[in-house]
Amino acid sequence: MSTSIVGISKVHGSRFGAEVARADEVTAARAPEPRAIPDLLLQVLTGLNPETEERRKELSQLLGERFSSNKRMQSFIDAELTQARAKLIEQHESLKTECVAAQQRSEALKRQIIELQQEAVRKDQVVTRAKSALTNAEQARKALSRFASADAIKKADTAIQTAEAKCEEASNAAAPIREQINRLTFVEIPRLDEKFRELSAQELRVRSLVTGEGFTDEEFGIQVRGRA
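Request: output the structure for the sequence above.
Response:
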């Protein structure tokens, strides 16, 4: 029931850098050939050479019973191992899906940050214009003659108050965007990347059990040998 999953690009971190394998690279791998279990009693029995016909018949009967018993046991063992391998492959597929989802969420947040940064630039431009307007209003107020009329002074003061209100409004609009960028950058994305590291490490270990290949433990930096 394997499904092909697009490979994941590397997510950089201090403890990992491996790519998650494609589904068809692992689940399509041929299952290991079942190994015959040595039977010491059978080996001893087949090496015997009874002298009498009666004992030879008894040996033949014992051999038949042993062969039949071994065949049933081998069939049972193979069925259990096949079921266990199927569960292992299912677990591996689930881990790969989780890895893909974790990285996609991380990439989506990074794209969101880019959009927020663009919006922050636009908000900062509004703040800059508002501050410039405030500076102009303050300079205009200072430039008034001491003989300026009360109406002119009131008009200049009103212009300053209006510009101050627009500055505050623009700054208040920009602040939440910066806070959201910081939260995504320093909290959400690192948390998702750490989750990906954990899932990637699990995927490597389970993949090794499925394929029999060795792998590098990214957490401890050691090479884990595959099965012979």
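The chain has one domain: 23-224.
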